[in-house]
Specification:
Two copies of one chain form a homodimer. Chain A has helices at residues 5-14, 21-32, 39-49, 55-67, 107-119, and strands at 72-75, 81-84, 91-95, 101-104, 125-138. Chain A is of the alpha+beta class. The structure holds a DNA duplex.
Chain lengths: 145, 145
DNA sequence: ATTCTTGCAAAGCATTTGCACCCTG
DNA sequence: CAGGGTGCAAATGCTTTGCAAGAAT
């Protein structure tokens, strides 16, 4: 997932946010670290090139990005919150053995769920979004998850 | 969800756990507070009758109960972890406006999902469980969520 | 110039841990 | 009486906050 500096600037500008080196760094990290990084992973990544950006600033920036719909934040069974810059409707595969997470996207599944809940209304509840948490085991050849 | 003291004792005994007043209190709280309580809510409930049970003990007990499959632990987008003593396969409805959570159980949905993933294997992944996170708005008459 | 953003360090909150004492089986 | 369980308080880990100084528009 490559992203150009110009794209990042436009993303910030379109939300009416000031363009600062710190915010650019956070967005760069977010797009470079595809694996639903924690704040700590983002901070580590940033500090490789910019050791002077403060931890608190990264948290504040992430918060602002979430509030502006640039990224999303979610929790796993682990301690730290995860950030995700993929905004399309997708689900998550969770490793039962580690903290590894992958995306799962399937239009047919989304249609299936949409149909199901169209014919099976939940009493007194208005659905806004549906996400699957699929827990299991990654069978990669490297077994590195 | 009423539960008798005897049932609780048997539950502990069947897992080879020592029966202590503290553990009984935690289990009573868990069954009395149906709404996926946080540790804090459990502690508050217990302290109404047993102000002398330590916070750390409740956390340790909850941990042991989770490890022994008596209850489950999960996280929402909120801060604190939630505990759930309903063990059947069910999904969760999350309020977009508050911390309120309700269970959603539907055999047909479970079958539908089972069928889907039987014919749509995920490469290099072995599914162990599937849970829906359904986010939306509770439309109760009292609007109390 | 004005308003927003940053850095820093301290505080906050949920949870865990260490250890001496105590209780259950 | 032996092995676990408990209470307490301190420690941990993630995240938030307050505020003075700095930067973006």
């Amino acid at each position: 997932m490559e992203i150009h500096a110009e794209t990042i600037r436009e993303k910030l500008k379109s939300k009416g946010l000031k363009i600062t080196p710190q915010r650019i760094s956070v967005l760069e990290a977010l797009y470079a670290l595809q694996d639903h990084p924690t704040a700590e992973q983002i901070i580590d990544f940033i500090h490789q090139k910019n050791p002077n950006i403060a931890t608190g600033t990264v948290y504040k920036t992430l918060d602002i990005l979430v509030k502006n719909g640039v990224t999303t934040k979610f929790r796993t069974d682990g301690e730290a919150a995860r950030y995700d810059c993929i905004l399309s409707h997708h689900h998550h595969l969770f490793s039962a053995e580690s903290d590894h997470i992958e995306d799962y996207e399937n239009e047919e599944l989304n249609r299936l769920l949409g149909n199901f809940f169209e014919t099976h209304h939940i009493p007194n509840f208005e659905i806004q979004s549906i996400k699957l948490q699929i827990k299991g085991r990654f069978l990669s050849n490297t077994n590195s998850d």
